[in-house]
Amino acid sequence: MVEIATGHVSNRSQIAELSNIDSYIFDANMKTETYHSWYCFDEQLKQHIDSTGSIQGFNGAYYINSIILDFDRKELDDKTLYDSVHWLVNFEMVNDLGINKKHIIVWYSGTGFHIEIPNLFGFTASTTLPSTVKETLKSVFPVCDNIYDGARLIRAPFSYNSKKGNFKIPFSVDEFNKTEIDNIKERSSKGFRVEDKLPINALKSKWENVEPYLKSYIEHPVIDISIKNTVRSQFRNNPNSVVTCMQNVIGKAPVVGERNETMMRVGSWMRRNGMPLDIVKYTLRTWSGLGEEANNCADKIFATGYEYGCSDYIMAKNCKPECIYFKQKDYSLELKSMNDIADEYAEFLEKDFTESSFNFADIYDMNSDFWVMPGELVVVSGNTGMGKSTWVMNLVTKIPHLSVMFLSLENNQHMTGRRFVQMCHNLTKDEANKVYADPVTRRKHMEAFSHIQVTTVPPELSRLTEGIARNKPKVVVVDTSDMIWVKGIHDEITKMNHIINSLKAVAQKQNCIVIIVHHVNKDAQNTGIVRMGSLKGTSNVSQKADKVLVINGEMNELRRSVSSEKARDEGYMQLMFDFISKTFTFKQVSGQGGFNVQN
Asked: For 206-229, how does the pLDDT look when each residue is reduced to its tens digit (9 = 90+)?
């Protein structure tokens, strides 16, 4: 089985049998795209998607039907692109590796080339197959794009390509060698021919019996089992000044009438600090003298995950002035040698970031990657009325594999919740209100953004950073940055510098992505055009940011552009959208905008 996406890569989670892919390819005159998963699966994938709605988090077996290499255009012109693929196919694959020409199909994808071969390496199904495939193909075909993660989609055979308005078409090696790039592009623009399908299907049917003759090239991931030196830092803070209310409670006899409620708070505190269930039960039994009731309290806490804040009446009345609420500071300076840095960077390159990052190319129609990685601070800005908050809300609904802490500080919770329903399900305000009125429908519609947790109460900065550390979200959204308050600081410039510095530090320390919605200065409001220098406050905002995305457009028009004014480790990105205000959705304009690699 394979996962299918039709119309756009985001319209995925459709499951089809491998032999039935052709029925998902649209006629040429319909000009509709189709993608399928790079890997194949058994019935476990359908069960997983039926229960979760997405391939993300799938931990079943992966299979290989055929191997598809991707050689994309990047910065190459047409002739250089063709010559590079010609060399790859004829010299590296046929001459050096000894691959039979009959075992190679060269597809022109519309922007680059896909080279398809049978499973000549003899990869076998396993839950860790993507890592083995990645190691092997990176080693054997280093010039090809790394597209071997388990959730990857690739354009289906004969599919329409909306980026260039043409089609994915096949060539044998001999036919490819004698066809110039201009003729390839011309043929691609006319759509596929029926006579192309028959020989391709016949050829691929013979691949099933091909004995793998490249087994010796398989590379397996290397697991580092070497003993690491432990770096110890001196703990310089007084542990008794952390959550003093709970220490105060368990240091005294239980208050009659409050034992059960207090046990719930103590148990929650212990669970949040990593205490196992048995230890929590023992502590509550010993403190309360109520064995069965203590066990029941602990079971409820671990099953439901109850949380209590400082405003809770039991915690508040037992608080002491010296409590700093989890503000331990490590005053030791962590220095690393260049060898340590090199080793850690090598480990970084080997990580699978699919569960902690996102790629704009997986969300929008783009011709190259634009990754947002853990530890990055992303600033999104635009003039009033451009929908910058709404665009960020749209964005986070499209990354369900990442847990999101969303601080919607300019809207109330009812408006924020309703707008998420509208944009996820393309509903008007009245239609969304009807959804809320029906408990069954309401629960079903909420599943689309179950990965998002929202607060609309502006936090104090230190409490925010502590909350991020406690809850461990993969993505934090602050909308807007100036709504955070900083204790003891009232000057706006100093306050903003403090906020930006702290959010950048928390992104790196907690290994999460922080996205802030930021206002523009008066010059941008007057000119109507937003650039990186348009951000409100000092240059510290743009300097600390890893990426600065700006939204521009005319106030009374639908069209919006989202462009990257800064991308510390990526190229330039520009996407075009129509802002549909009735449903609070940003609909990408097909064939508009794109991506231009600069680094």
From this structure: 888 889 999 999 988 765 555 555
> Model-level pTM greater than 0.85?
no
Please write down the long-range contacts of 300-306, taking CB distance under 8 Å and 24 or more positions apart.
Answer: 300/264, 301/264, 301/267, 301/268, 301/271, 302/271, 302/277, 305/271, 306/264, 306/268
Residue 14 CB partners (closer than 8 Å, separation 6+): 3, 4, 5, 6, 24
3-state secondary structure of 479: strand
Sorting pLDDT into bands at 50, 70 and 90, what band is 308? confident
Report the chain's terminal Cα–Cα distance, integer Å: 38
Rounded Cα distance, 77 and 79, in Å: 6
DSSP collapsed to 3 states, 113-133: EEEEEECCCCCCCECCHHHHH
Average pLDDT, the chain: 83
Cα 287 to the center of its chain, rounded Å: 45
CA-to-CA separations, 20 to 24, 110, 119, 160, 313, in angstroms, rounded: 8, 23, 20, 18, 62
DSSP letter at 93 equals I
- For residue 435, give both structure tokens: 């959804």
DSSP single-letter state for residue 212: P
Cα–Cα dist 211/120, whole Å: 7
Quick count: other Cβ atoms within 10 Å of Cβ 155?
24
**What pLDDT, in 10s, does the model give residues 449-462?**
888 999 888 888 88
pLDDT for the residue numbered 106: 96
Q: How many CA atoms lie within 13 Å of 401's alpha carbon, on the beta-carbon side? A: 16
Task: Report residue 269 CA to chain centroid gap.
Answer: 31
CA distances from 345 to 46, 339, 356 (A): 37, 10, 17
- The string of pLDDT tens digits covering residues 474-505 is 999 999 888 888 887 777 888 888 899 989 98
